[in-house]
Amino acid sequence: MIDFSAARRHMVDGQLRPNRVVSPALLDAMADVAREDFVPKAAKGIAYMDEDLPVGDGRYLLAPLTLARLIQAAAPGKHDTVLDIGGATGYSTGVLSRLAGTVISIEQDHPMVDRARNALQGVGVENVEVFVGPLAEGYAKRAPYHVILINGAVDEVPEKLLAQLAEGGRLATVIGTGPVGRATLLTKRRGVASAQILFDAAVPALKDFAKEPGFVF
To answer: What's the CATH fold of domain 4-209?
Structure first.
């Protein structure tokens, strides 16, 4: 019988704290949300490995360290509205719910949305809403957002997502879908998003954000 509480403590103390995750609120959130409840039954035993974890249909949960460092850089606050893009089964949404006022999650796969809603309800999350829609479109109906998190590597961040950021808002993702991408924080000031490279990261790509192939003679 796996002691998942001990596994969460080991994740926090063995993976996150030694690797520059220092936010007390974030560490508490990662220690509180049961990651094993968001993975397929057969994968529960490896839920806390420091790897991107497949959850079906070509989708993944980001490795705990990668997720934590992206969230820490975006710095969601208790009064913020957050857009969680591509949260798959809802784990990242659950973590964000412990840090922000409201979390809007967008997924385009109906069965995945159902899984996320059920898992979030199961862990008692109340300040989130999960919607179905194209990931690269975001969710303009509830914009602007103080924080946007994209759960995967993208070729580029669409302008329509940057338009959904509030002034002073932060968007965190991994840019670059090759062998190694760059975790990046985009901050919007005076209507313009400036980029800060955070660290190298090799994470699964979100195909919904792939660039359209250019015209070739």
So the answer is: Rossmann fold (3.40.50)
